[in-house]
Amino acid sequence: MLIHRLTVSPWQANCYLVRQHDRATDCIVVDPGLLGEESVVAEIDRLGLTPVALVGTHGHIDHVGDAHKLAERYEVPLWLSEPDQPLLTRPGLALSPNSAKFLPQMLGGTDELPPVRDLVTLAEEQEIGGFRVRTMLAPGHTKGSTVLDVTAGDQRVVFTGDVLFAGTIGRTDFPGGSMTEMRESLRRIKAGFDGALTLLPGHGAETTLDAELAGNPYLQDSFLEVD
Question: How many C-beta atoms surround the C-beta of residue 99 within 10 A?
Answer without folding.
Answer: 14
